[in-house]
Specification:
444 residues; alpha/beta; Rossmann fold; six-stranded mixed beta sheet; four-stranded antiparallel beta sheet; 17 helices; 39% helix; binds adenosine-5'-diphosphate; binds magnesium ion; ATP-binding; CBS domain; transport
Length: 444
């Protein structure tokens, strides 16, 4: 949300154990409480009158400091699973531990002061100001007034709202996106190690939604909370989740893995359908230019003789040359047919598209499609040339991803068919041995 991290608050709730990532990020000057591990151990929830439990034997580890997204169809048990973490719903059987402690051993009210909870629309109290909404949990924890006020300002800045302007407003005086931001601030108020969010950005328009997602990721980069986010939107799950749990009916895990692995290798047809047929494009959003073998460019310096540039292009078997300035930074990308006169000039205002290797491939494609350039010049952080990535290379990369996915699917189908055939054969043998006579087909 803002680029400045929240001011550390040294006297918040008891320090929780942190994982390596958590302590590394907190070392950067912030002493925010980082996330703790959450474990579901054979958890069942049966609502009255249900034949099959809403959540049927769920076992799962959510690593400390990570974002796990629960994604699945409506009614699959996502919300029920989430609410069992803060005991808004009590499991029928099984146990949930947070930071190694069984939640059944904790007072539910106290537990909920240590777990932020954000739901759709922010669910702010309409009769309370923004400041009072954020202060709810700190007041329950008897924080001193000065500390609460400081925390409110800190959090509003963190979620990108100017405290002076927004503190005293009422929820109805805010846009949907702003209400949602205040909801996130309220969830983080007492610096809990765990933040639960249920369809948090479901009520805002797609552009605001994308911005809120980006801001949440920026906040998480400094805070390293353990976050569990329920969504029915696979794109949101992929964007936000370090890991994604694809849930089938009754809280069954269809697949629980990183987005990369789920997209590249869906566990079954259900997951493949759910992540969608355009999974190659989704994979592009997870890969950067670092995964592309860059092509080597022909290079020339501005002011070099044209004949030398032509020779270099021939030598590199290229139709284009990258023109470098005195500091070896690319300033133009010229077709050899445009090399005229005696010396090479970079054309003013014609700088090629310059990208660093951390740019995701979907952004590269978007950039190239809208620019009409047939490639991009890739540079390092100092602006020096690394190589060229062409439009053809990226589209070939998409085709490769698709081909690999098709191969994996075909291989899975083959394995499944073989297993079916083996099972059938075994059945026939068993039937024969049991003295039930020859199986039908064999008797023909
Ligand atoms: N309070 C409740 N009482 C009875 N049944 C419920 C209750 N809450 C949810 N259910 C049922 O449990 C199942 C899982 O619901 P839920 O956890 O809300 O799914 P999701 O969040 O994935 O849409 C559904 O069949 C739903 O109808
Ligand atoms: Mg739900």
């Amino acid at each position: 949300m803002s680029s400045e991290p929240a001011t550390p608050d040294n006297s918040t709730t008891a320090r929780q154990s942190t994982d390596a990532r958590g302590s590394a990020s907190t070392a950067a000057g912030s002493s925010e409480t980082s996330g703790v591990e959450i474990v579901f151990n054979d958890v069942v929830k049966s609502y009255p009158g249900q034949d099959i439990p809403a959540v049927d034997h769920l076992s799962l580890t959510i690593p400390a400091g990570e974002i796990v997204t629960f994604v699945g169809l409506s009614g699959s048990g996502k919300t029920t699973s989430l609410k069992m973490i803060n005991r808004l719903i009590e499991p029928t059987s099984g146990a949930i531990t947070i930071g190694g402690r069984d939640t059944r051993d904790l007072n539910p009210d106290k537990l909920r002061t240590q777990i932020g909870y954000v739901i759709q629309g922010g669910s702010l109290f309409p009769h309370m100001t923004v400041a009072d909404n954020i202060a709810v949990v700190p007041r329950l924890l008897n924080w001193k007034k000065g500390r609460i006020n400081k925390r409110i300002d800190e959090l509003l800045k963190l979620v990108g709202l100017d405290p002076a302007e927004y503190r005293e407003r009422y929820p109805k005086e805010l846009s949907g996106g702003q209400q949602q931001r205040v909801g996130v601030a309220r969830g983080l108020a007492a610096d809990p190690p765990v933040l639960l969010m249920d369809e948090p950005f479901g009520a805002v328009d797609p552009i605001t939604r994308a911005r809120l997602q980006d801001e949440l990721l920026a906040v998480q980069a400094t805070l390293r909370k353990t976050m569990v986010i329920v969504t029915h939107d696979i794109d949101e799950a992929i964007k936000l989740g370090d890991r994604i749990l694809v849930m089938k009916d009754h809280g069954h895990i269809a697949q629980y893995d990183t987005a990369e692995r789920i997209l590249a290798n869906p566990a079954d047809e259900f997951v493949a359908d759910f992540v969608g047929r355009d999974s190659a494009l989704k994979q592009l959003s997870l890969q950067t230019l670092a995964s592309i073998q860059l092509e080597q460019a022909a290079t020339v310096h501005a002011g070099d003789p044209v004949h030398a540039a032509l020779q270099e292009a021939r030598h590199q078997k290229r139709d284009q040359v990258v023109v470098l300035d005195d500091n070896d930074r690319p300033v133009d990308w010229l077709w050899t047919t445009n090399l005229r006169g005696k010396v090479v000039h970079a054309r003013p205002g014609r700088q090629p598209i310059l990208l660093t290797r951390d740019v995701t491939l979907d952004t590269v494609l978007d950039t190239l499609v809208t620019s009409m350039h047939e490639g991009a010049v890739v540079i390092d952080d100092a602006g020096h040339l690394l190589g060229i990535a062409t439009f053809d290379q990226i589209t070939q990369h998409v085709r490769d991803i698709n081909a690999r996915a098709a191969k994996t699917r075909a291989e899975k189908e083959r394995v499944a068919e073989e297993a079916d055939a083996r099972a059938e054969a075994a059945e026939k043998v068993a039937a024969a041995q049991a003295g039930h006579g020859e199986p039908e087909e064999a008797s023909k």
